[in-house]
Amino acid sequence: MKKTVFGAVSALVLGMSGAMAQDYPTKEIQGIIQWGAGGSTDTVMRSVTPHAEDVLGGTIVMQNMTGGVGAIALNHVAGQKADGYSLLMGAENPLLYKVMGLGDKDYTDFTPISILALGTPILVASPDAPFDDYAGMMDYINEHPGELRMGATGPGGLPSVVTAMMNTVEGDLDVISVPYDGDGPALTALQGNAIDVMPAVLGAAIEGIRAGKMKPLAVFDLDANDKLPDAPIVTSFNADYSDYLPWGPFFGVFVKKGTPDDVVTKLSAAYAEAAKSPDFVELMDNRGFSMLAISGDEAEAFLNKWQQNTAWLLDDAGLTKKSPEDFGIMRPAEK
Amino acid sequence: MDAFMAFLTVFSHPELLLLVGVGTFAGVYVGAIPGLSVTMAVSILISFTFSWDVLPAISLMIGIYMGGVYGGSRTAILLNIPGAPSAIATALDGFPMAKRGEAGTAIGVTTVMSFIGGFIGIGVLALAAPFVSDFALTFQPRDYMLLAILGVLLVGSLSSGSLLKGIFAGALGIAIGAVGRDPLTFTSRFTFDLSIMESGISFIAVMIGMFGVSEALLQLQHVNKASIRQKISRIVPSLKTVRKHLPLSMQTSTIGVIIGALPGTGGDIAALMAYDHAKRVTKNPERPFGDGAIEGLVAPETANNAAVGGAFIPMMTLGIPGDAVTAIMIGALYIHGLNPGPMLMVDQPDMFWFIVGALITANFFMLLFGLTGIRLFTKIVEMPRSVLIPLIMLLSIVGAYAVNNSITDVYWMLGFGFFGYFMRHYGYPLGPVILGVILSRLLDDNWRRAIISEREDLGRFFYGIVTSPLSLTLFIAVLLIFVSQTPIWSWGKAKLFGRKQGQS
Fold it and tell me: Which of B177, B218, B396, B481 could make an S-S bridge to B437, C-beta 3.0–4.6 Å?
């Protein structure tokens, strides 16, 4: 008796999962946002997802799950079924979990649905800082070793990568690194002169720069940014930066590896369509993000390259807990 | 003139008025349920109002925010479970009042005082926002640290019995707050390599457990005792009562606005500081604090509602959130195509005046919804204990789960509930534990930032304190309050004023 019931149930389950692929979605989809409410990842996901829902014809219930630099959310989704009903909405950080000793899972355990957009780093200074551009800052550091206070957001965050880049290109900088729990609080501290300079994503600093509350020192990109055409690019001060650029944080939607291909296709198509909607494009443009909206092999290749470049950059700067080699992350080919 | 028209937008559009009203009503009830937070409600609303225009979306959010901050006091008074961290201080005197059968009076006073506090907060926002935000920006890490120490010293006024036990409880709270991966360097602290400790202990779970579950366990001892009949003679406090407490409410509202405007501190700390302030300045309360003093309700409730207006100050003038809810609202403004930042006031002053108008409307609705339905609410306390205790347990479990949708939080909550029961049994106060958890990160993070910024040199650190007027003021306040709690103070006072008192 028990066996028949079990058989019937498993047949039902199998039947359902067979039917699922064509009818997907047949129930609510959970969207787990790796970062807190009100942060950039949250804003991006909450503004693109309603458009994806329209295309998909289903409901995506979004929920913030914070903690462990996003690892709590990542592990949660990794622990769900690979059926496309749990989406991970995250940023770039998980690609560094392994080398930073923060976890043993990263995006290689997931399939990218869409890598939505790429941010541009910018180095900003408080308006009272005794220098006005990148070259002035370097002179100040040389004349006043150990005096400049630079904001940081912990190992693996954007400021740590930009700082690693600067240390690699310019030689070790003798500065004080003051830790904050996010670029928002650090940029607030910058405006109150609690720190002197801060590497941040352009979108977070742009309004402060427009109002004259922060000074742009250098945009970390190969070309000038449309949003801040007057801000100098870092390669104009030191051409060696071009080896590491363009580099930037990104946002993406992921599902657990092993999700049926047609579900992945359906979701990817929905998010690709959603990323084209004018108000989302405008939002990303206003915040200084470049649209990517890539999926499939292109996204995998992007993630791979990003992880190689960044992990090795941090490793060479001595900031990692474990060598990228231990996880089979290859050193990027010399340019 | 344009500003005035923008200010009146809410009143001239019935649908906006309705949305603020609906939001406030929902906020009162969301706020009253522990675990369901305003932050959560507002972030859900972002998706919900995605396709709306910006004004209706903001109207609804402001309603929820205003109502929610007030709503936290309901369960604090009736069941001794603060609906939100900012209502912890309200429970200290509100629940004793309910136990005397004065829940109606307590809710009435709370509502009117929240209304007054809310108004003062909005007034400061409307009239002095740029000044306050400039002042808030001058707070350096060392000032936040001194503020946190000032907070830690509240242990004295939150522990009714032995000060020593209070200090133990406060230290325990600070330790609980430090568990998990440190947010600045991601180093594991007190985790003992257990994965459930990695993300830290949810503060809300500790609060619900310590207040809710321990209360339920305590009441279990008198399960057959008849419940308290509530007297509902007078709900709206008399004009005389309001006038009597007006000076105090002005002071505590000021505390609320400033603490609310500081990015990094919010209504919870404001309410506790205001409570402490009330205890210091009130010479002859009708009843002792902790036993149902009206002043113990006036102070935290004016402060936490004034903090709402305060939190909007850095948001509107600088695009910097004053607390978690305004952080989400900034996100909402982005999504609706606005660019919150220092230029918002210049580019779109109408938005500012619209928000001020909506806040005032929400404040009136709060008064309206707060004063109606009290009779029904007080019935909760009149329920037989055999019904009430399971209800408290259910509410606690649902609340703890809802914070992060995590069953681990429920275990923490139950664990701290049992622990809290034994603490109460042996006379250890619970208030300081929660205070410690709230202040733990503020103290720890800012001490580290302050000392790192000074190249880890104590000499430079103190030089920084004495050369900054703000830091020096805070430092002297810390010293004075500390000394005033030691025997040196009364000894010194007797020495200085002793003869004078003897003569008169």
Answer: B177
Least Cα distance to A211 among B338, B343, B130, B348 occurs for B343
Asked if the C-beta of A203 comes within 8 angstroms of chain B's C-beta atoms, the answer is no
Q: How far apart are CA A275 and CA A271, in angstroms?
A: 6
What CATH fold (topology level) applies to the domain A121-243? Answer: D-Maltodextrin-Binding Protein; domain 2 (3.40.190)
Q: Where are the domains of chain A?
A: 2-118+249-327, 121-243
Does the CB of A98 have a partner CB in chain B at under 8 Å?
Answer: no
Q: How many CA atoms lie within 13 A of B389 on its CB side?
A: 16
Instruction: For residue A4, give the 3-state DSSP assignment.
Output: helix
Residue in A with minimal Cα distance to B265: A185
In the structure, what pLDDT confidence band is assigned to residue B481 with cuts at 50, 70 and 90? confident
- The token duo for A41 is 């990842």
Q: Which among B138, B185, B327 is the nearest to A38, CB-wise?
A: B327
Q: Are the C-beta atoms of B54 and B333 separated by less than 8 Å?
A: yes
For residues A250-267, average pLDDT: 93
Distance of CA B423 to the CA centre of its chain: 23
pTM: 0.85
Give yes or no for a contact between A191 and A212, defined as CB atoms under 8 angstroms apart.
no
User: In terms of C-beta density within 10 A (0-12 exposed, 13-18 middle, 19 or more buried), how is residue B496 classed?
Assistant: exposed
Question: CA-to-CA distance for B424 and B214, rounded, in angstroms?
Answer: 8
**Contact check, Cβ <8 Å, B50/A46:** yes
Contact residues, A window 148-187, toward B, CB-based 8 Å cutoff? 149, 154-156, 176-181, 184-185, 187
B500, pLDDT greater than 60: no
> What angle, 0 to 180 degrees and rounded to 10, lies between the N-to-C axes of helices B431-453 and B141-152?
160
**Do A2-118+249-327 and A121-243 come out as alike in CATH topology?**
yes
DSSP code, position A217 = E
- The residue of chain A nearest to residue B142, with distances taken between CA atoms, is A194
What pLDDT score was predicted for residue B361?
Answer: 95
Neighbours of A15 (CB within 10 A): 10
Torsion sign (Cα): A202, A208, A211, A214: negative
pLDDT score of A294 more than 80: yes
What CATH architecture does domain A2-118+249-327 belong to?
3-Layer(aba) Sandwich (3.40)
Tens digit of pLDDT for each residue in B163-208? 889 899 999 999 999 998 887 777 888 888 887 787 788 888 898 8
Q: How far off is chain A from B299, nearest CA to CA, in Å?
A: 29
| Contact yes or no for A169/A190 (Cβ under 8 A) | no
